[in-house]
Amino acid sequence: MKALTWHGKRDVRVDTVPDPVLKDPDDVIVKVTSSGICGSDLHLYEVLGPFLSEGDILGHEPMGIVEEVGAAVTEVRAGDRVVIPFNVSCGVCHNCSQGLHSQCDTSRVREQGMGGALFGYTRLYGQVPGGQAEYLRVPFGNKLPIKVPEGPPDDRFVYLSDVLPTAWQAVEYAVVPPGGTVAVLGLGPIGDMACRIALHRGAERVFGVDLVPERLARARRRGVEVFDLAADHDVADTIRGLTDGRGPDAVIDAVGMEAHGAPVGKLAQQIAGLLPDTVAEKLMRKAGVDRLSALYTAIDLVRRGGTVSLSGVYGGMADPLPLLTMFDKQLQLRMGQANVHRWVGDILPLLGDDDPLGTEDFATHRVPLAEAPQAYERFQKKQDGTVKVLLRP
Ligand SMILES: NC(=O)c1ccc[n+]([C@@H]2O[C@H](COP(=O)([O-])OP(=O)(O)OC[C@H]3O[C@@H](n4cnc5c(N)ncnc54)[C@H](O)[C@@H]3O)[C@@H](O)[C@H]2O)c1
Ligand SMILES: [Zn+2]
Ligand SMILES: [Zn+2]
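Above are the sequence and the nicotinamide-adenine-dinucleotide SMILES. Below is the predicted complex in structure-token form.
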């Protein structure tokens, strides 16, 4: 089959690789019909190279049609339409039954000291072949696939794999009080969807911050009050001015480890990028290699006693944080990979024909798998208005 594989920094290719096969009796093979490119994939493309091997298949936002099922699979059958969560979660262990699917005890990558495995996401998360491919092997076939109805286009459902539950969890963890305010840093797919969900769930005011004009415009069209980081050097002060000088009740960081405006982290990431992989891996495991400007803004901006909800991915082990401020302001900080299955029941009712979250025109680009390398490049460089790309293998 064809699959998008990693070959090095900013080097992904569409290669011919062996078709996946059933290994365990509860495996399922899915023929992928749509598969998103995520901001998390951009971290693999740029800075997480030391944790990848040449030929790794990327992608963790797939949906498609069940092609084949193992002997023990009773919950889906060939021909069913399914979305596959990015967490490889068993659905029955202690953590899964607490709704902590990203911490699945069964798939946990213990040798790396990490939580549950993820599709297409480095050795740290189990080096599981990903879904930017024609076919995908899916373990836990009775629990993991989310069955969705026939009829509406893939775009209505594909974001159940990641964007919707991640943005939902970001808003849930932000605990915005009724009539309260929230600022969302980063208006990529995750931040944009978090704004939509916050408004839908009754936040009084949603402030969105980014520096890409089309992303700001897109959020503004949905009722977000937007602020251009490139034009306003003290966005935190500006937003505080609109919230009686206090700051919003919550701030969602939907930026992560490659934030703009963080020279120290950028240097650390560049140095890591120049080292041989084994040395870089050691450095990244021990050092503070994240670009922290978005997180610093979140801590500065949120009101005293407010909540910072972190959905942007970070990876440094020794990142300096302003604990004096965090303690003095009495902040709560919640974070983590999304627990996809935990939120599916809340989100599915919003995927009807009225489409209140605007899933059907959420993607800016829909391209064949063969064009994925160019799509990665345009997404990273924010060219051609790219916000969300769906591959159609
Ligand atoms: N927690 C999870 O389960 C989960 C799931 C999916 C994605 N993510 C993470 O969420 C983050 C966003 O993903 P995305 O798909 O929206 O990617 P993205 O890269 O398109 O979005 C990031 C946005 O942040 C903006 N930005 C950069 N620096 C900024 C700053 N200092 N202040 C404000 N905005 C800034 C960029 O212009 C961009 O629009 C990534 O770190 C990704 O890895 C986490
Ligand atoms: Zn993702
Ligand atoms: Zn589990």
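The first strand starts at residue 2 and ends at 8.
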